[in-house]
Amino acid sequence: MGDYDDERPSWREIDKRRDRSSHVKKEEKQRKESGTADRWNTGRHKKALERLFMGEKGTVEHEKLYSKIHKSYGSQTFLPTVQKYVDQYGAPDDTSTLLLLLDTKDVPIILLTMEKLQAIYRTVSAREKEDIRRKLSILALTDKSADVKEKASETIEGFKS
Question: In the chain, helix, strand, coil percent, each to 5?
Fold first, then answer.
């Protein structure tokens, strides 16, 4: 009978295996809390570094003006907002905003936007490529400015090669 008792685990060991021991729960809780805090801090640090490397486009003022472009689309404040943004930060980096800028009816902004679209075309998704081609083909057919029509046609042809 003595041999059997030596091989049998204690109740404490059994509880630890089942994760029911009060000691195990406290240790796990501490690990989870510290892991969550570390992950949260890591995310905050990563975002701060990304903003730092973005330069002026990583500031709060940039975010406000950027969101104002999207909010003012279709209103009379859209063109002045876009002009202010372009003067301060240049052309935006994302496709959706660039496509909005093509609706400004301001020739210099449209031409700048088309140059930026040409530069990022190879890096965007297939859906965004299709959106860019459609928007430019509409401009090539319907815009009042001959410069915009010509540049849109050239840009579309450049995408095909």
Answer: 80, 0, 20
Do both 40 and 77 map to the same domain? no
This prediction's pTM: 0.64
Q: Which of 33, 54, 75 is the last residue of a domain?
A: 54
* Residue 131 domain boundaries: 59-160
Instruction: Look at the chain and report how many structural domains it folds into.
Output: 2
Q: Cβ-count burial of 103 within 10 angstroms (0-12 exposed, 13-18 middle, 19+ buried)? A: middle
Which amino acid does the sequence have at 79?
A: L
User: Can you state the angle between helices 22-54 and 11-18, rounded to 10 degrees?
Assistant: 30
Query: Over the stretch 58-81, which tens digit does the pLDDT of each residue have?
Result: 677 888 888 999 898 888 999 999
pLDDT in tens, 26-56: 666 666 666 666 776 777 777 766 666 666 6
Q: Are residues 147 and 112 in contact, defined by beta-carbon separation less than 8 angstroms?
A: no
